[in-house]
Each structure stands twice: as C-alpha cells, then as structure tokens.
C-alpha cells in the first residue's frame, strides 16, 4: 500500500500544481505541504487532509489511509462531518502494558468510546513518551487495526506491536535475523532495536493519529 506522501505526490502530478499554489488555495503553509510530500512517515491532521481532499476532489479517507475509492462521491465526501465511527479506547498506552491482556479480558462495551472519522478501526490507544514525536506526540491517540504479520508487513510504516514486554509504537523494518523485525523511532534520540515475532501477541497498523496540536 502506498504512503501518504506518495498519494499526495500522485495528486500533485495529476493536477500539475505546486506547493505554493496549493498553499494559496487551501491556507495550509508551504512548509507543512513540503513536509507531507517529502516525509513518508508524515500524516496531516483531519482538517488539513480534508482541505487537500476537497481541492483535489478525491476521497478524504483514501487520501489519508489509502483504502477505499480514490474519487470522492458526487454527493458527499467519505469523511464528511456527519460520517463518524465509535471505537473502543483501550485503557493502556503505546509504551505501556499488554494490549492482548485487555483485548482478552475487557469487552468492547466496557471500554470508553471515542469518535473516529474513518472506518475499519479496531481500537484506539494513547501514545506515551517522546520516541515517536513530533508525528506521534505523547498524549495523542492512534487508531489501529490488527493485521496478519505473517502474511505481509508494509516496511517503513508505523505499527503498534503488542509484545510480552508491553506495547510499543514504532516504524518497522526487516531484520537480518530470521523471525525478527527492526523497530525504529521517529525521534533520532531513541535507538533502534529488534523484536522477535515469537514474542509478539499482535501487530496493529496505525491508520491515523489524533492529537490536540
């Protein structure tokens, strides 16, 4: 699956516009636009993504997640203000306890619910620590969906790993060691490390980050 910056670059190429022109049309700063185009890990907030989707006349959900139809519906955008989804906010943090323990022992109807602007989300959890800042600041909430890590991992993307030592949010890369993955932080002050998939209860793809920035 393509990254956000690849989808955004595709729209730039199709329409033949420049960051300056898009900035003038949407009110989003050129610096923000250039960062979103150039950094494969960067994602915008909901309002910025919606401005881009409206300008390019594409589905806001497709632009943000790469899922669904690219073209916006003729009568409504997939992510209009009236389309929201309720998802359980698990009472743990990314960099905290085991997600599996709560999934097994806590029923969805016992969890606090938050509103998600996109569908297909399994859970929401809160980010803790600064290792993934500035894209995933401490205190922000990430919307996640479980994947089959044995079938396919989209290297370089951000995932939540539920491990025997707790839950972590990291960019994943292949390892030279069989059955392991390399976990990298966005914040360069934090070193990379390897995790054996045998010690992983589940891998969850991060679909979106919601923060109060």
TrEMBL record:
SMART domains: HTH_XRE (SM00530). It comes from the Bacteria. InterPro entries: Cro/C1-type_HTH, Lambda_DNA-bd_dom_sf, LexA-like, LexA/Signal_pep-like_sf, Peptidase_S24_S26A/B/C. CDD domains: HTH_XRE, S24_LexA-like. Keywords: DNA-binding, Transcription, Transcription regulation. GO terms for molecular function: DNA binding. Residues 8-63 form the HTH cro/C1-type domain. PANTHER family: HTH CRO_C1-TYPE DOMAIN-CONTAINING PROTEIN (PTHR40661:SF1), PTHR40661. This is DNA-binding helix-turn-helix protein. It comes from Hoylesella loescheii DSM 19665 = JCM 12249 = ATCC 15930.
């Amino acid at each position: 699956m393509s990254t956000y910056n690849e989808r955004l670059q595709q729209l730039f190429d199709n329409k033949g516009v420049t960051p300056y022109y898009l900035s003038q049309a949407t009110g989003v700063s050129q610096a923000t636009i250039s960062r979103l185009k150039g950094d494969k890990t960067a994602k915008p907030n909901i309002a910025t993504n919606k401005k881009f989707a409206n300008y390019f006349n594409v589905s806001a959900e497709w632009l943000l997640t790469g899922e669904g139809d690219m073209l916006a519906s003729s009568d409504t955008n997939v992510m209009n203000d009236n389309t929201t989804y309720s998802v359980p906010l698990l009472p743990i943090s990314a960099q905290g306890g085991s997600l599996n323990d709560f999934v097994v022992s806590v029923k969805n109807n016992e969890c606090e619910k938050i509103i998600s602007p996109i569908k297909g989300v399994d859970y929401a959890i809160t980010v803790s620590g600064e290792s993934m800042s500035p894209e995933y600041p401490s205190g922000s909430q990430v919307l996640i969906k479980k994947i089959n890590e044995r079938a396919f991992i989209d290297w370089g993307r951000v995932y939540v790993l539920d491990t025997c030592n707790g839950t972590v949010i990291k960019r994943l890369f292949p390892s030279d060691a069989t059955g392991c993955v390399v976990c990298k932080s966005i914040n360069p002050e934090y070193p990379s490390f390897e995790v054996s998939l045998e010690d992983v209860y589940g891998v969850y793809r991060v679909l979106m980050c919601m923060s109060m920035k």
